[in-house]
C-alpha cells in the first residue's frame, strides 16, 4: 500500500479505537482466513466469580473454601482472585499458607494448617495420584454450563469441587458472526478444559476449540494452524498470550489486557471492544483494494 493509503487506514482505525502499529499489520490483516481467540478475557469478560462449592465427604463448604482460598492467596491467576473474593464475601477467616507453589496452566499447591492442599485441574490431581472419580460427575455438570471446575485435594485425598463462572462478553457473539460473514474461520484457544471451552464456544457460535493447551504451547498451536496453510490472526489479553500473539501473522491485543500482550501485538483494540477485530480486517481490505 502507498504511505498515504496506510495513513488513511491507520487514521480511520484510530478513530474507531483500533490502534494499528505498523503498515505491515494493516497490509497483512486483509489476508487473514482464521482468527484464534483466547477464551479468558477475550471471549469472556475475564472477571470470574465463584458460583458453587461441593465438598467431598468429611468437609463442609466453609472448610473446603477456607483451605482452597488459603492455598490460592498468593496466586495471581484470575481464578484465585475469584476464590478469594468468594471467601471474603462469605466472611471467612482465611488462614495463611506456607510452601506455596504454582503449577502453570494447572493450579497451585501450599501447606495450610499443616495440611498439603492441592488445587486445580483434574489432571493436576491425577498427576499426583489422587483419585477424583467421585468428583467427575459434578465437574462435568459445571463444564456443561461453561463454568470452570476447580478440584481440591487435602493430604492426597479429594476434598471437593468448586466452580467459577466467567460471563461471555456482550459483543463476542456479534464480532464472531461478523468474522464468519467475512469468510473467516474462528477458533477458541484455552488452557481450560475441553468441555467448558466447548460450552463457551457454543454460546458465541465458534465451531473449533483448542482446549487444555498449556501456556507454553499456545504459540505452537498457532504455528500448527499456519502449517495448514492458514493466515492466522490471534486475539488475546494476557501475559500467557504474548508468544502466541507474536507468532500469529497479525496479533491483536485487547487494550484492557496486560502490557506484555500489547507489546507483543501488531494491533491494539483500545476500549476492549471485540468488534475491533472486524474493523481492523475491514480497514485492511479497503486499504488494499484502493491500491490495486
Ligand atoms: P487460560 O487459557 O484460560 O488463560 P490457564 O492456562 O491460565 O488458562 O489455566 C488453565 C487451567 O488451569 C485453568 O482453566 C484452571 O483449570 C487451571 N488453573 C490454572 N491456574 C489455577 C489456579 N491458580 N487455581 C486453580 N486452577 C488453576
Ligand atoms: Mg490466560
TrEMBL record:
It is found in: Cell membrane. GO terms for molecular function: ATP binding; ATP hydrolysis activity; copper ion binding; P-type divalent copper transporter activity. Keywords: ATP-binding, Cell membrane, Copper, Copper transport, Hydrolase, Ion transport, Membrane, Metal-binding, Nucleotide-binding, Translocase, Transmembrane, Transmembrane helix, Transport. GO terms for cellular component: plasma membrane. The keyword Zinc-finger does not apply. The keyword Nucleotide-binding applies. It comes from the Bacteria. GO terms for biological process: copper ion homeostasis. Belongs to the cation transport ATPase (P-type) (TC 3.A.3) family. Type IB subfamily. This is Copper-transporting ATPase 1. The chain holds residues 476 to 767 of 913 of the full protein.
